[in-house]
Amino acid sequence: MKRVLLTLSYDGTNFYGWQKQNGLRTVQGEIEKAIEIIAGKPCEVFGSGRTDAGVHALAQTAHFDLPVDIPISRLSEVLNNLLPGDIAITCAEEVDLNFHARFSIKKKRYQYRVYNGNVKDAFMCNRMGWVKYTLDEEKMLECAKLLEGRHDFHGYCSSATCTSDFIREIFAIDILKEDDFYYFEVEGSGFLYNMVRIIVGTIVDVGRGKLSIESAREALEKGDRSKAGVTMPASGLYLKSTTY
Questions:
Q1: Catalytic annotation, residues
Q2: How far is it, in rounded angstroms, from Cα 32 to Cα 58?
Q3: What is the pLDDT of residues 167-214, one digit of tens each?
Q4: How many beta carbons lie within 10 A of that of residue 42, not counting itself?
Q5: Among the residues of the chain, which ranges form H helices?
Q6: How far apart are the C-alpha atoms of 234 and 126, rounded to whole Å?
Q7: How does strand 107-115 pair with strand 129-130?
Q8: pLDDT, averaged across the chain
């Protein structure tokens, strides 16, 4: 028995998220179907985390136990021949049997992409968020700095979040601009439901003058979701990397 760590990318447009669900097309479900063909029996795949419907991944990680003797060096190629075109295995490697793709993780980095053009672009609707307003970069950087650190992020998650522990640590929020595009990168110890999309929505709302820094601070200090910004669309969010 070998434990295998997969690194994969996927276009989340036509998936109902990572986690397998009966009767729905999911990333985990597609990978498990491919592995079952190779292994001759079902093998459960454990992801580093769940991405929602429409969310993409540049480097999602997941592990599973391989019960057959197949060279790990050929596994990526074999799986890619079985997987649909919107999932790609970029690396397969053997890891210690004590390793866990979710519980061994130290930090994750998400990237949110925003098209900041005046005219709607139909070819970006499944790839980016669209903000047509002028954005004040200085104010956005101030808001990003406010949200870095270890905080109770109750005011920056969906009401559907199922947890009693809202403490998370944000190591860095970086904002990069290239022509009409903004790239917001959020790196942290872990994230609550819709947390990254709300963080970016808050920074954008501050940048366009719809929301004040004081309101963003109040959402953080009082856990008041109504004081934070919008939840950005899933289409602009990418799981960029995981660190073990």
A1: 52
A2: 19
A3: 999 999 999 999 999 999 999 999 999 999 999 999 999 999 999 999
A4: 9
A5: 27-39, 72-82, 137-147, 195-207, 213-222
A6: 9
A7: parallel
A8: 96
